[in-house]
Amino acid sequence: MKIPVSGFVLNSGDDDDTHHSHKLYITSWNGNPVHVHSLSGITSINNGHSHQYASWTAPAPTGVPHVHGYNTVTSLNQGHTHHIQGTTGPAIALPGGGHYHLFEGFTTIDGSRPHSHAYSGRTGNEINSR
């Protein structure tokens, strides 16, 4: 099955760098415009500290049932960071329009005394990624 996807690629702009990167911005998926959500919070306290995180979800189609992937790194606390990765729950409608998603999980296990942190929250309202 083929799904039509449209978007654009943005070059990092550094032509002298042999390890330059590109970012792919998807603007539609199967004919539907896509959107993203903000994602932020503070992890649980473990080993005497917590971590902050802030990022954006991966794009998903607008106007159809969907979830979003997310992947970010926490703040540096106690000499280490943790990775946060997962998939949101389904869309929950907001009374004034738009929607949000719930998310939860556990960070990777890191630190000089290996440990993880729990995290949970709700995304911000949808933002058109065009």
UniProtKB/TrEMBL annotation:
Domain of life: Bacteria
UniProt protein name: YmaF family protein
